[in-house]
Design goal:
By secondary structure, the chain is an alpha/beta fold. Helix content is 61%, strand content 8%. It contains 21 helices and seven strands. The strands form two sheets. Strands 4-3-5-7-6 form a five-stranded mixed sheet. Strands 1-2 form a two-stranded antiparallel sheet. Helix 6 packs antiparallel against helix 8 and helix 9 runs antiparallel to helix 10.
Length: 504
Amino acid sequence: MHQKILEIIKNIPKFWWILLAILIVGIFLRTWHHHDWLRFNADQGRDALIVSSAVDGSAPMPLLGPKAGGTQFRLGAAFYYFEIVSAKIFGNVPDKMAYPDLFTGILFIPLLFFFLRKYFEKYVSLYLTAIFAVSAYAIFYARFGWNPNSTPFWTLLFLYAIHEVVSRKGKHKFLWAVLAGVAIGVGVQLHTTLLVILPAVTVLVFGYFLFKKKNVLKFFLIVLAVSLFVNIPQLIDMHKTNGKNITAFFQGLKTKQKAESTVAGNIFQSTSCLVQGNIYIASGYEISDKCSFGSGSSKANVVVFAFGSVFVLGGLVLAVRYFLKEADADQKAFLGIVFVFTGIAYLVFTKMAYELSVRFYLPLVFLPFVLLGLGSNLFFVQKSFAVFANYGNPGGSDVNVTILKEAEEFSRFIVTNASNKKNVYISGDKEFLHKAYTPLKYLVGRSNIKLSLLKNLPLPDQSFQVVRQKNRKKIVLDTGVNILQYKDYGSFSMLLVQKNGSQQ
């Protein structure tokens, strides 16, 4: 028996062991200190409140999901459903709610390998998969819960399944049509842009093959039916509210383009973001989160942008050349589907160019699969991990990012010092509270204590204040309060303060 097992292991091809090693590295980088370093900003606190309420039965299952940024339109509820299921299985706490994004971030790695194998030789596919396994960009967005974070997986599953349906060699086409429908149905609920991109790509791809008199109509109808079925909660809401959310969607489209922008300006901004997004995905080097680039850019950014322009635009030109020369119908279809998806995404992004940031390129994370190596990615991953490892030290935390460990430390301090009160108040550093108040409210609320912002209310006898550590002693002189207890974490201190003259 032992000998047979060894023989089976010995006969496993080498490239499978390499893929396993790549997957293990990818899993490690996405799970290391997952709980403590979990990004837990205002959006995550808001979502945790909604998910927890649904899990414990204090609120009904939501029919709609988070609002699209800057609009009143709400996405579908798939993101919340994933988090609710995860919370029910693994525990009703923030890091467990984020597991679906973690799992899809991990599953994306082998899915990318099989997707690339449709066109590339297996060892080339392994090399390119290895690049993505250590991509700082991909790792960052797989390590916390946010509705766009699983779009890479659902987008790639959609592209893979659509190719299987239209491929001459494709088997189990009915199953792949169902999976394509699921991927579309979920994808359109995760980001507003995919609500346009995925249906448009589907119609164009199937329309082309119908024009070529291919027998794909029945599969198109399956994709359509399944995608609509996955969106039943949205359809129910549409019926209940007479299409209020759809109206908000079209109103939101008008707000996604600045009035002063021009066609040329939009094209430049969108192209700049395309280049920067691909640079970030492939190398880990971020020029600007908002894709800004101009005369004031540093020399290093200019050089990187120039290289990235050659990499992206030159690579697309070569890809078109390969497409025109490709004799294999399935490989030609592979390139064609990638071009259609990229082209539609580029047009959508150009329309809303000045609203873009590099996170919009999550659905295009598969695109930059050549040229840049592993070294720069590992450098930037190590750099970001070093920041989180130093988060609890003086000056270590970032006002723009609240991690779960930080929120837990401060919420535990509040609960411990609440003195059996059911209502407590917090004030202090506005920048910190802008990101951290909702997460703190959620965590403190789990101990049946209501945490409220102390805005224009009179100062109670005791309250909590957040200040920068270096200002902790100064707060006594400036506000005339006594500090009864305090908790330091990173750059900030949480204080339990008492008005002068009050009794403990």
